[in-house]
Design goal:
15% of the residues lie in helices and 40% in strands. With 382 residues, it is of the alpha+beta class. Strands 12, 15, 16, 17, 18, 19, 20, 21, 22 and 23 form a ten-stranded antiparallel sheet that branches. Strands 1-2-3-4-5-6 form a six-stranded antiparallel sheet, with helices on one face. Helix 1 packs antiparallel against helix 2. The two termini are 32 Å apart. The N terminus and C terminus are likely disordered.
Amino acid sequence: MRAAAFCILMMGSSALAGTEVTNRRLEQGQTILGALEAANVSAASALRLIDALDDVFDVRQARSGHQLRIVRVDGFVEHLDYRVGPLDEYQVRRDGWRYIGEKRVVAFERKVARFEFDVEKSLWQAAISTGTDPVIVMALADAFGWELDLMRNARLGDRAKVLVETLEHRGRIVRYGDVLAASYTPVKGAKMEIYRYLLPSGERAYFFSDGTSAQRTFLKTPVGWAPVTSPFGNRIHPIFGEPRFHDGIDYGMPVGTPVRAVASGLVTFAGYTPGGGNMVCLMHEDDYESCYLHLSRFAQGIQTDALVYRKQVIAWSGNTGNTTRPHLHFNLKKRGGYVDPSRQKFPRTDPLPNELLADFSAVVSDYSGQLRDVGVPVMASP
């Protein structure tokens, strides 16, 4: 029997008679429905369970490795536990003849950890060599955004320090939260320090110590950090094998990666094209238009003339249209002509208003102290 196959555990004498528990782990390419049917849950019951689960968890986001626990009493499914990760657990329980889905509350602690490393060959390699989780590198690169292209332009001898929120469950780090503060000291150039601040609107934003925004009106990329597999400009087309102008940037990523609007705007197109597959285009201020191609599906409400906001998830990446592998093609136009998104100089977002500066200064003092405090341990991967 394969390692991923389910095992049936009969409950002890203290449990109800006729109770059995089935544990499964989703295999590669397997759906929740397939896993339930493989565990001998009838198709009718499986569909009812999935319908209830979908009220609290998007079942289309099911992935291999997710865990299921099915509890049956006298042959009837009493409840289904669905575990995405240590902090993301869901349950569907029977209430009479219907099923009700809910997200299980998992207790965790929020703490702070400090990371620091010197760049050797690359920022990524620097993290690996010091035992730092690469997730921290991606968060650092994303936090600095337009100020520094750390994944491409980090140089030997550059030094980084990061203060990051950690979520701990039963004494183990199970997830990293926001970068709270970060400093980057290049071999050539001035040191940069940025600080996270929670705005009254609830948005988390990054600022320099004087309250100037460290963010731009457009995001650097629509997918946070992802490897560039084909830059803007002339290239040999991977399908047609001839020189062609590449009007955007390709980011390599698995199908289902969230794609965010790089700026607020109106949807001008959301549909299928033969070459671009599923595609969304947005019109922004200052005569900019952005397009996102080869998507697997659109987010709810994404249709022509819909208003979207900066950082809003508008779709999920895919492999539709003319492609050789899953990726996102992102292009940007200004006044109707294609421009290189990575070379645009967008204005900064608004600085902090004067009435928030005193509170922000207190945050800076706290975070900068922890960023330099040797009492805050330098962490390695858990």
